[in-house]
Write a structure and sequence with these properties.
Two copies of one chain form a homodimer. With 644 residues, chain A is of the alpha/beta class. The first copy, chain A, contains 17 helices and 27 strands. In chain A, helix 10 packs across helix 14 and helix 14 crosses helix 15.
Chain lengths: 644, 644
Amino acid sequence: MPKFSVQFVPDGKTVEVDGPKTVMEAAELADVYVNALCGGEGMCGRCKVIIRSGEVRAEPTAHLSREEIRDGYVLACKCYLDGSAVVEIPPESRLEGAPRLTDEDALRFGSTRVLVGEGGPYARDPLSRKVLLSLPGPSLDDNVADQERLYRELRRQRDIPVMQMGLVQLKQLAELLRENEWRVTATLGQRGGTIEVVEVEGGDTSERNYGVAVDVGTTTVVAHLVDLNTSETVARQATYNSQIQYGEDIIARIMFANTREKLDRLSSCVVRDINDLIAGLVGAADVSLQDVTYALCAGNTTMIHLLVGLTPSAIRLEPYVPTALAPPVVRAAEVGIRINPRGLLGCVPSVACYVGGDVVADVLVSGMARSEKPSMLMDIGTNGEIVLGNKDWLVCCSASAGPAFEGGGISCGMRATRGAIERLSMTKGCQVASYSVIGGGRPTGLCGSGLIDLVAEMMRNGGCLERNGALTADHESQRMRDGEDGLEFVVVPASQTGTGKDIVVTQADLQNFIRSKGAIYHAAECLIEHFGLEFGELENIYISGGFGNYLDVREAVMIGLLPDCPVERFVFIGNGSVQGAKTMLLSRQALEEGEAIASKMTYIELSTDPKFMNEYTSALFLPHTDIEKFPSVRLELRRRHIEV
Amino acid sequence: MPKFSVQFVPDGKTVEVDGPKTVMEAAELADVYVNALCGGEGMCGRCKVIIRSGEVRAEPTAHLSREEIRDGYVLACKCYLDGSAVVEIPPESRLEGAPRLTDEDALRFGSTRVLVGEGGPYARDPLSRKVLLSLPGPSLDDNVADQERLYRELRRQRDIPVMQMGLVQLKQLAELLRENEWRVTATLGQRGGTIEVVEVEGGDTSERNYGVAVDVGTTTVVAHLVDLNTSETVARQATYNSQIQYGEDIIARIMFANTREKLDRLSSCVVRDINDLIAGLVGAADVSLQDVTYALCAGNTTMIHLLVGLTPSAIRLEPYVPTALAPPVVRAAEVGIRINPRGLLGCVPSVACYVGGDVVADVLVSGMARSEKPSMLMDIGTNGEIVLGNKDWLVCCSASAGPAFEGGGISCGMRATRGAIERLSMTKGCQVASYSVIGGGRPTGLCGSGLIDLVAEMMRNGGCLERNGALTADHESQRMRDGEDGLEFVVVPASQTGTGKDIVVTQADLQNFIRSKGAIYHAAECLIEHFGLEFGELENIYISGGFGNYLDVREAVMIGLLPDCPVERFVFIGNGSVQGAKTMLLSRQALEEGEAIASKMTYIELSTDPKFMNEYTSALFLPHTDIEKFPSVRLELRRRHIEV
């Protein structure tokens, strides 16, 4: 086979390829990131690249406009290399920078310290604990064995049920005890119902004990480094889940992982991401990896499967069966996670295929499972989850919203990263008055919150948008025009954007968007009606998830994404997944409550509920076909003399 | 360095050596066994070999007679090779054949089936159990995860407390369940307080589940293969512990194992021995290694340390501290034991440095820990152990008898293997009337039981032996003569032996022998007096151990090794170590009782008891200075008109 050389700009990376390869495969070899929401199937149209020079064969696609084709755009996954080439990855196809830091979460939503220890509902009792032991040296009157001497002292200090020590550690014990004159530090790790003496170190190392709480998200991975002695969070980092290159959403990744080899590839991706985060955390906090003795991960069921290497294939097919809801606690090294070589790795248990440990963590953090009155929790994202209940009962459902809130299926949509418009306001007549761009500079697209603002402002400022989401053709604004696929609204003209192209929303974008918001709202409504309740009876509505964090409640009510309740009832819990994992890392009691939440929660499959399917269309209005359900929206629109 | 070639006969093995090497080291390289009780220190004189040709330098030694030196004998450990050589290993320096088979134990002492199951004290509940599961396939109404579905069905069938499954197994679960249409067999293994799902196999393999019970002795290793479904012992094998080449007794081996590398070498020896036994067992019983799912080992504390690789050095030094009394249950493969790759390995817990799991197993099998009346258990060997107690209390001590019963320290002593005189009778005037040789043919030495018979018969037939063990110089027999080291008695003249040399007992041999029997008896007496009891109050005296098995009670009482109790009170329990391990392998309840015995038993250190040290010499008589303690002996001697 001839060999070709492929250079990627602006990365500057070059790779040699042989055999028939797509540009996407070459990029993968070169370790250059290209968006691929569909996993390289030519479906999503997000892997647009520009062929600067070289010979290629590109399959025809509806995802490229005539202008783009003229400018050299191809879909990387459907473009084959026939010779050496130079390929440019344009900004909209790249993953730029790290996700928003979650530091602000802690400030905005309070830290875990409130939940654990004095004043909080959970007793401080970390899953990993270092105990300094000054053992009495052996004598003829007391010549119990080394291991049993250590156990005896541990039991004297703490009430410990079952105990075990690995053979590797035990083999070193005799020498270690004597070299350190019987003064050692034992690290005790929780392993299911038993306590393991994970490690014994010479002297007093009890001051240095850290754990990592990880939120393993489909899109982002967030890790917090926690001082297990003080409960302080000493560092926080976030990164994108690099599995994204094999598929944007859960379903695409499950489909990709159809062999052990490909499953292992996905596993290595997220393990590397977590290791990078941990390396960054210990660097930032000046902590030794040796002193990180426990990692607790929360994530949706599929992400946990992919992390520990469990077959996920049955998750996406009826009757939707995961391999395990609660994988065993293992040595972190067994999965490839680099902390203390003998440190442990646990996962917050899941409820069902589409309700994972991240939701369990959310519920724990919200406090709804400790309250008499029922509350609702909404995790808004591509895979939305909604939980309803109180301390006695919990039910949940999932709502497949689609990727619109993360920028998917929206022509100028993007994630909430640098260049995204996140806030937007209009004046009457739908004139865009102002917008704010993440990271500053010229905008390159619209993220979910920007899109919600846009639609809400279009509703408020009348005339350009029907209640069913149709753009109004005869609108006065010059921003409304006929595009390739029908009507479209120019949000920012090309002259002011970072891509040199107009940022537009099309009629199709709006339909996708309305389907997403409608799926979430309708699922919440079905769940609450199923149990004979009304939104007004809820004590609180907790909003969690990466997207939820940046939601403006009033705008979200305006478009009919959130129910029309008093604003003060909405409580943002931030990244409940990492906060919940941290709470459980710091308190065995909290972990047990998490386990109780997971086993108590009942999953309702809405897709088989006739009411859900029949009445779904009523939510495909702005805000709803039944405006009586949104009295505050009606009031505002009436005040603005807009017909409702 | 020049290279030499060393050939060993009669093995016929040849080895190339370079550098300065002893004959012992060359033999080790050639994998030719040479006795070395002291671990190659030139102390024991048991590694006599004959240089047939070649250049060597031998250090002077008192262990060789003038005749032997003339005939080319050297000590292998103190003879250096200066050139190529041919070395003969004479019969007395070889380890011949396998130890006596233990099949007869089962016949003579009853099998474990009496203890486990119907009619026995312990419920049948093997440490490893296979459970056939026909799981309901998942449906939308029942889409619990694979792992939890398996656990649910297991819990439905059995009351199981905690459960865990390894990640390696869990990773294969989804495919395995579906390939086998939800019909699988789970192997459940006891692991401390928890149950592990050790393995899941497709289809019904529940008919095939085996365990191995192993007695890891200092000298011999005995293994029984047990069908865990029927409790039948399907095969038995025994071999010598090949650690013997690095030291005959426990102390020599502990001293040898003073580095991790040498400890690992000892560990590999016994692991290989056990693997050889298991390979032989599964071959004999036509069982697949895959179907052997548990191994339970009983042994003295040092042997268990050496098996699993724990540092034994503190065991031999005051205050006598082992590394662990109860090593954790581990995967057998972690220690190198070859059964099912995921099968487990457990050890019967020890009581103290010199009272191991073998004694715990003995006590369990004897039943003394279930009885109201006190009994005594005596394990007679190089390291004797004595236990006293009933269902409420148990005390034990160890008695360092020395190696006389195993042939050590006795000029013509040998183990109870082929060529050993095991029974002997005399007529009046100390004429040897008859003897029986293990394996038939000409005798090469005397084993312990032969030695006891010899001494008892010398006592009975008067005149040649004083009560203090001194040979009588003026005895009429022509068998009494002056040897190199004083008086000696010729048991079998050279013309009738297998070695072509006289089999003699010397004055020094008799002193060693009396010290050994005195140590055992005196320890038993001290223990019983310490608790205000008398031998006559004991319900039973249980005799265990490889040597004990072949003891003639009347002869042992005659010489003052065993107390003078009615013969029917002595109960032989055979190899209680392997029988006890088997009982615990078949019954979790029995294992728990074993653990209770180990933790309840109090170890008394006799060497610090003034009474023990002061009165020890009174036991250095035949049978005792105080003949009142041995009324039946007095009666018999008087009847024979022998002055007592």
